[in-house]
Write a structure and sequence with these properties.
Chain lengths: 160, 265
Amino acid sequence: MAKVPVQLTLNGSERAEFIDSGQTLLHSLRDRFGDTSPKGGCHQGTCGACSVIVDGELKLSCLTLAETCNGSHVETTAGLASDGILHPLQRAFLDGFAAQCGFCTPGMIMAAKALLARVPNPSREEVIEAISGNICRCTGYEPIIQAVLSAARSNSQNAA
Amino acid sequence: MGLTLQSFRSVGDASGALAAADARYLGGGTLVVRAANEGDVSLSTLVRVTDPALGKITVNGRLAHLGASVTMAAVSRHRELDAIAAAARAVGGPAVRNMATVGGNLFAPAPYGDFAVALLALDATVHFADGTQPIEAFLAMRETLSRGRIVTAVSFTLPAPGTFRFLKVSRVKPKGVSVLTIAAVIGQKDGAISSARIALGCVADRPIRAKAAERALAGRPRTAEGIADALAAAGDGTAPITDAIASGWYRAEVLPVHLRRLLLE
């Protein structure tokens, strides 16, 4: 199996690995780059559990080839906390009991993060649209929606 | 045995690599990487073109030109493409829209291909390096496209305000696979329909025009009575697909219902 080099910035750190040619970003993040935060759900782009942010855009890592991310900035949930301090989204999900089994959570948080970067004060409908590509079987979505709205509010309170 | 990715700076350079039987073009990856994940052994090489010109949107007067690598997200956010943004927003969810391309959607099999349905109603032109083809002809022969021929762009005349109608019927909202997709460009003059182009998705294995319905609308008023004949003819020439989303029977049953709602909006 041919190996190809992939160099990218993962959660702020410059990383380089040799990965199997044609491997998805999801598999290389989990198996080579040591980041198991994105999850493998459907592997066909319908569940959103693999969602990551590449160069500022929400993408499905199960449908992205790692080689196409050479030179890119990749953000995953594993990189959100800083010095042990949770990201506002993580705090809001925790406080709002927006995770039960937790499998959809990393994807949900990245989808929410991508939303808040573009729309700091989203409406309920905008939150629903933003997580529409992420399936949750446990929570019924409402706690997740509330957590995203709560994180947005606390962001704007901190900014004020 | 693995997958190899070959990247080229230009369409001309890539065409040779695509001539191999086991090579497929990589756009956003939403179709072809999915196929690889699902164990499609017929593909072993993915070919992509990184030419930034393929990602450009230009609008000159009323003529819109979208490069084949333009994403659904880019279309939905472009100021001058507001009239057709609903069609781009209908594709997948937010992450899919950041990846799915105009070019790729042309090849999507039913029940996918919502944007291609819109392009069919818009009577778009498909561009290659060496020429162009009307989208209807392209869709009819897209599987037999000679190996190595790469779609570079699509172009179409922006519809006059209020003439473009789009509906994606899905069981789950806001994001769900299509039961039916209907796009229509309806022109009216002096209280009667003066022109009608109606494109349907999921009533065949590719987007098709509802020509019998279009003919039945000519000169009629846009009222329940006026469109009745068109609704009765909506299913002519269709062979709705049966899949996990809906049966062909169901799609045939609800087609006139949704077409009625769309036309009377």
